[in-house]
Design a protein that fits this description.
By secondary structure, the protein is α/β, with parallel strands linked by helices. Helices cover 37% and strands 23% of the residues.
Amino acid sequence: MTDMFKTIYELGIIPVVAIDDAEDAVPLAKALRDGGLPAAEITFRTAAAEEAIRRITAECPDVLVGAGTVLTKEQADRAVAAGAKFIVTPGFNPEMIAYIKSLGIPMMPGAATPGEMEQAMSMGLNNIKFFPAEANGGVNKLKALAGPYQSAKWMPTGGVNAKNLNDYLSFDRIIACGGTWIAKSADIAAKKWDVITENCRQAVMTMLGFKLGGIVFYGDEEQGKKNAKLICSLFGFAYSEDQCGIHAGDIAFSKAHGEAKGCIVIETLNADRAAAYLRRKGAEIDPDIWYDSKGHISCFALKDTVAGFEICIEKK
């Protein structure tokens, strides 16, 4: 996975937008960034697309901006000249795909059928836009195709929304989802930046699925057993012991670790994306990160404590 596709994967959602007025480009980019999604696929469905890309590139360099709905070589040239960091096509035109590939810019060709996907992979393009996603069978179709197409990864777009977002993202062959619902043209035209920011925030929270996984108190082992048994007797929680400590339901007691009082465990649906999101929020991640057999993050901690407690984030 190149750095560009790694970034797209960590973002998880790429807002897909059509801008009618280039004056709205920078405020839009800031609204997306403020909501936790510093990225935009600016579609060439409008005459303002090229200038919008140029302005976002110049004024919001921390926002990843790409060009979508690229149908002609001239549009591809204009997108690259304007500063687009990636290009997405809605369909599979072999001549166009070869031309964009020759420009040396990361791209995702659109494909809806197995034949189109095979052609893309034969050209070394394993990251594919699946469009229109829901109308073509949704995530179930992609799961069926995953067997024969082992190297393919998809960015489904079209019909993906807040309700079915995690149906797609829970499948590990999805690089990201195209978020057409994040910044609607009507909201952009009406300059409803707060609405767009909130759409981003809700989408990110849905994607990450943060929830309290448990609390661990550090201290003497024998005292921990007494405390756990007392809590279980009072509240009917299940008592258990394992290599991680003594448990009273979701409350645990463990041997002391450094100077921290304990650990607050936060669960997430995707620890890779959670770590990237928290870094964007300014949090420092402890370098001692745990990975699973596929190279994805399974557990990590924040560098700083909160009220004397370590904060550990674990993939559910």
